[in-house]
Amino acid sequence: MDRNSITGLVLIMLILVGFWFINKPSQEQVEAIRQQRDSLQRVEMLREQERLTAEIRNEAEKTSIVLQHDEAPDTLVENRMRQMYGQIAPFVSGEQSFHTIENENIAITFTNKGARIYSVELKHYKTHDGKPLILFDGDDNKFGFSFTHNTRVFNTNNLYFDLTQKTANGVVFTLGTEHGEKLSFIYTLPEGEYMTNFSVKTENLTNLMATPRGSIDFNWEMKMPAFEKGRSFEQEHSGLYFKFFQDEVDWLKPRRNDEKDLRTKLHWVAFKSQFFSSVFIADEAFASAQVSTQIEENEESPYLKYNKTEAVVPVDFTTNQQIDFRFYFGPNHFYTLNKYGKELELNGLIRLGWGILGWINKFAVIPVFNFLERYITNYGIIILLLTILIKIVLFPLTYKSYISSAKMKVLKPQIDEINERIPKDKALERQQAVMALYRKAGVNPMGGCLPMLLQMPILIAMFRFFPTSIELRQEAFLWATDLSTYDSILDLPFNIPFYGAHVSLFTLLMAATNIVYTKMNTELTQSTNQMPGMKGMMYMMPVMFLFFFNSYSSGLSYYYFISTLITIGQTVLIRQFVDEKLLLKKIQAHQKKPVKKSKFAQRLESMSKQQHQLKGRKK
Question: Measured between alpha carbons, how far is residue 533 from residues 46, 110, 379, 539, 564 in Å?
């Protein structure tokens, strides 16, 4: 082999090595592939386990035909099962039994198959059609821990435990062998609580359960049932939430199918409906998790979404230990969730808005709302009083906005004179003349907008508050049977796109009052013709509200209706005390005073002079 051949081979080797390094998967990619492979392997093994079990039972049934009466037909099944499953064989099959514990708030039914929670009923709540509110029932909710034994993957959800202890407020399920190996699931339900304590206790499990990664996977999946009248609205406010360990609460996107691979520690994972949640909490932390949510597209289905979680739980079977968890099954009520502490931050399940919107709801709206609840039982009256209180607090801003608009109105003749005197092609010069008029008159053209802008956070905060307020659920007022959902006075035989198949009266009233208020505002502020299309846009907003709010919470539509109605009343009242002629005299008196130019006006004037100079040079 000559030198050129050797050089060529070396170059080829270097290229191959370089190509391998460049395309080498990252550690994260390797881990993701491994997790995917493990998941697929577990699914295949579980399927194979079910298939072989069925074959063994069928074989045993055929064999038992030729056995004598004094022979044991189960011996064949037992031997084959032990060959296949080793020490886990006695727990693969069995008879399912159910056990219930309860307190004044909830009733929890357990099954020995998987030693899991089979169903949960919230005693103080009903579905929209008056049925008992069952958070989940039967196979709609599955959870268990995956482990390996004799190279096979098992899940506790498919194994039969023994009920070893039952008290008024707790149950203990145990999976134990004759060699002293035990796995126990311990549940306790304290009085007056929605929180259930759950502990996993291990004893001598080194040879029974293998944990090559020093952890086991917790698999939890649930079919989320519908409880409320407005399906699309409830579906939009349901989803999968989680809290990072010593960090904030986050969630999957509620309006589409979504999934995330969370590679950091988690404190809890929650399957949340509009007003109720099922939360699994780790007292220590989950090492990581994969979460996903899928929307049910069929509107006739009793389910809204399908949520899944696969969380990694650190465990060491070489030592006896107890791993503590908790389940919260209950309402999304702010103060109920808040009592479990700032560290858990369960109140993050209620989306009250970010930043200042959340502060307004947490520290102003909710405390006032709950204070009124102590003395008033009618929630329509509570909303009315809350609205009046808010409008009183905001009245100075409303008054300032009206005065600013009134000043603009009385200046309209002078502005029209400027527009006639200066042609449209000299837009900058016209604008300078108008601004000079405002300065001399002491009028701020933004004076009417700023007060309204300051009120916007409260309006948006209320938009967040009403759809999430469980206090309004199934509370009737006037013709509305449930303030948490839409109030239908007429069910249509057809569906109108973007509107629905019903007519909400509170939404109609809200749109009507907004049209009246828009008309009053337009008459007050028509001081310029610079934006002729704006008037039509202002009237389009109430029409858009009519479509947008038709399927929304009737409590929210009622609040906006009352709020706008009070604003109209305040405007009419202010008009009685504001003399526009006297206001014009004050403006004219102010115009006679020398005007001190602001820095902005000086810069604007300087820019104008520079433009004139440039035009002169071009000529």
Answer: 66, 65, 41, 11, 24
pLDDT attached to residue 196: 95
Total residue length of the chain: 619
> Please, what are the averages of pLDDT over each run of 10 residues along the chain (619 residues)?
55 62 55 52 54 52 41 56 73 89 95 94 93 93 87 87 92 89 94 94 85 84 92 90 91 91 93 95 92 92 94 88 94 93 90 85 88 91 92 84 75 77 76 74 64 76 88 91 90 85 91 87 58 64 85 91 91 78 68 59 65 60
Structural domains in the chain plus CATH codes: 65-91 (no CATH), 95-351 (2.70.98.90), 365-591 (no CATH)
Beta bridge partners of 200: 185, 323
Give the pLDDT of residue 17: 60
Smallest CA-to-CA distance from 304 within 230, 220, 234, 229 is with: 234
Amino acid sitting at position 210 = A
Q: Which helix (H) or strand (E) holds 561?
A: helix 554-577
Task: Point out which residues pair with 303 in neighbouring strands.
Answer: 225
* Cβ(106)–Cβ(194) below 8 Å: yes
Contact by Cβ (8 Å): 28, 34: no
Within 8 A by CB and 6+ apart from 137, the residues are: 118, 119
Phi, psi of 612 (to 5 degrees): -60, -40
Cα→Cα distances 608→422, 429, 595, 614, Å: 15, 8, 19, 10
CB neighbour list of residue 387: distance below 8 Å, 6 or more residues apart: 559, 562, 563, 566
Q: From CA 520, how far away is CA 538, in angstroms rounded? A: 11
